Amino acid sequence: MKVTVDFEECLKDSPRFRAALEEVEGDVTELELKLDKLVKLCIAMIDTGKAFCTANKQFMNGIRDLAQYSCKDVLVETSLTKFSDTLQEMINYHNILFDQTQRSIKAQLQTFVKEDIRKFKDAKKQFEKVSEEKENALVKNAQVQRNKQHEVEEATNILTATRKCFRHIALDYVLQINVLQSKRRAEILKSMLSFMYAHLAFFHQGYDLFSELEPYMKDLGAQLDQLAVDAAKEKRDMEQKHSTIQQKDYSSDDTKLEYNVDAANGIVMEGYLFKRASNAFKTWNRRWFSIQNNQLVYQKKFKDNPTVVVEDLRLCTVKHCEDIERRFCFEVVSPTKSCMLQADSEKLRQAWIKAVQTSIATAYREKGDESEKQEKKSSPSAGSLEPGSETKEKLLKGESALQRVQCIPGNAACCDCGLADPRWASINLGITLCIECSGIHRSLGVHFSKVRSLTLDSWEPELLKLMCELGNDVINRIYEAKLEKVGVKKPQHGSQRQEKEAYIRAKYVERKFVEKQPASVSLPESGTKGLPQSKEEKRHSGPEKSLLAGEQGVAPSSKVWGRKAVAVSSDEARRESLFCPDELDSLFSYFDTSSKLRSSNDSGIQQSVDDSREHLASTISANSLYEPEGDKQEPSVFCDSKQPSPGLQLYRAAFEKNLPDMAEALAHGAEVNWVNLEENKATPLIQAVRGGSLVTCEFLLQNGANVNIRDMKGRGPLHHATVLGHTGQVCLFLKRGANQHATDEDGKDPLSIAVEAANADIVTLLRLARMNEEMRESEGLYGQPGQYSTNNHTEMQYRKCIQEFISLQLDS
């Protein structure tokens, strides 16, 4: 250790010692000033840093508030949250740095100044005091006279004691000086080193923190570049759309109003209407009206709860109003009140009236579907299932259309792009589609593809069976047979819409990927010769027995039908009903969709129909859910040495109930209404009737088959279905607009054939349909637009026929 003041010089109390003391004392005084200043600056720095951290924390809280505000934008919310968390960590690191600075600089240096320098000052005071006392003792000792021995001894003793005390205190003072000079260096360096290590730790923590954040920041930067490109593209698209819309004529709001029964949000139609108040002043107010959830509602502001005008659209009717001064008015009438509304134009008024009427019909259909589902759940069938028939078992369990269709192989993914869980279907092709591909299919036209929702639309039983008979795997084997050969890559669900649209058009419209057929038999536009009739048709083609009352005696088991009596043999009376639940659904769906029972006067009719449906559905066994196989012909009847023409292939497959072969024939260009000249000009639809399959008929009808084309004997599909006793097919053809008044070469219409065959089910079905036509004609003659009026006599006949139909089914 270097000695600042020599101890030997201290004992001598030489001028060098005094000069050294003076220099040291001045240095310590200046050191004290410097240290005090440094401590004050440190305190100011810490206070400023804490203020910075407070401001930084407020800024970070602002970022978090912005992140919460941007909760709908995942990218912005995630980024701002990460950044705010990082800044919060940096604030914590700053606080740690300031705490360490306070401990290393402020506290440590203040301790050095207060303790060590204060000891130096105290030692200095004692040294100065004893030094003064020593000087006084020396002066007094020098002034004592020789002759005064007593004073000489006293002065000598005081001087000796003073010198001894001086040496002791001077040595202590010198020691304190030397220790202070040595310690100040260590204290200063120690405090500064601690301060620098605190900074080192702070920057290391910050570096590590931002190193972890750096990959995310780089990814975000790349996304920002793409966002900038997308923003520029969107800006161009919006400018183009702005320019296109600006060129259109929007002088009227008529073009903006459309209604959609299958809207995903449940809103069929919405728009502004004037509503006449029910107060004494009859004021008119403009309100925002909408049709949703089978209700008519309106609201003044978007945030207001909608006010319900009509609770249930099934209980209301809509009509024009021409007897008031205002134009374009119409009235919605319910059992409890009426609401007068006014549109902005005649076109808008017609659109609203049509939307309300369509919603009324939809409400009836949806309520009917719900009741049918409840019936199936509450009254399970008692029949046994066929072994190994999983699809039938699922049908009996009452699964949704989506579940039934998606369980078919290949249907769990879109037929054209492979997207999982498709919710749409093409009913004439028998495939499932995603929402984007379904939109492309709609653009092809219904003659190529008929699109329906698996979740939003109601599904008839025959359509569900049709979907279960085909499926994506079957259709793709036909329409994508040459896909690998031509080298075309099938689009994926992430492909561009233009790519998908081109592929779908090439697949279904141009049929580029369908395998070409080999050379077909060179026959005229006809099929094979000698195609035998089915056993049922042979049985009905013999001598016909008239069973009308008055021509023969009425048997005891005869049933009265309106004004005629039909005699039924005891065997026929005991036979089971030909209706199965699916056919029964088709029967009543026909009346539900065509008769449009809307007024309160028809509630009894509708109730009778519902009661009959409920009772009959509960009494029919599960085995009748599936159509009988019928009498199939031997395949050898259709064997040729060469590939038949597409039309002949369709004709044969229709009889054999082979839907995949029928789909393949249509893909090869078969005409759906192909005529077999050598088989009495029979069509594939007539062959499907002979084959006994309702699903085959449905497939042909969905693909454009004409239900009224007749053969050489003047018999159409409805005639043949009646002759063969296929009740479900009769119902299907009536539903699709078959002419039940057409007569064959013998002058017989389907009703006459059914009466002569004593087929009670078909007689009932045809008579109900005929009465329904009379009711519709009566409505057209006597009813007002938007209202329903019924001839009383026709209504009584309709009720009586429904009741007799119920009685016949209960007796059988």
From TrEMBL:
Residues 399-521 form the Arf-GAP domain. ANK repeats lie at residues 680-712, 713-745. PROSITE patterns: ANK_REP_REGION, ANK_REPEAT, ARFGAP, PH_DOMAIN. Residues 365-390, 519-553, 622-643 are annotated as: Disordered. The keyword Membrane applies. Residues 365-378, 534-543 have a biased composition (Basic and acidic residues). Residues 117-147 form a coiled coil. GO terms for cellular component: endosome membrane; plasma membrane. It comes from the Eukaryota. Gene3D superfamilies: Ankyrin repeat-containing domain, Arf GTPase activating protein, Arfaptin homology (AH) domain/BAR domain, Pleckstrin-homology domain (PH domain)/Phosphotyrosine-binding domain (PTB). Its main location: membrane. It holds the Pfam family Ank_2. GO terms for molecular function: GTPase activator activity; zinc ion binding. Residues 266-361 form the PH domain. It is found in: Cell membrane; Endosome membrane. GAP activity stimulated by phosphatidylinositol 4,5-bisphosphate (PIP2) and phosphatidic acid. CDD domains: ArfGap_ACAP2, BAR_ACAP2, PH_ACAP. Keywords: ANK repeat, Cell membrane, Coiled coil, Endosome, GTPase activation, Membrane, Metal-binding, Repeat, Zinc, Zinc-finger. InterPro entries: ACAP1/2/3-like, AH/BAR_dom_sf, Ankyrin_rpt, Ankyrin_rpt-contain_sf, ARFGAP/RecO, ArfGAP_dom, ArfGAP_dom_sf, BAR_dom. It is a peripheral membrane protein. GTPase-activating protein for the ADP ribosylation factor family. PH domain binds phospholipids including phosphatidic acid, phosphatidylinositol 3-phosphate, phosphatidylinositol 3,5-bisphosphate (PIP2) and phosphatidylinositol 3,4,5-trisphosphate (PIP3). May mediate protein binding to PIP2 or PIP3 containing membranes. The BAR domain mediates homodimerization, it can neither bind membrane nor impart curvature, but instead requires the neighboring PH domain to achieve these functions. This is Arf-GAP with coiled-coil, ANK repeat and PH domain-containing protein. The lineage of its organism: Eukaryota, Metazoa, Chordata, Craniata, Vertebrata.
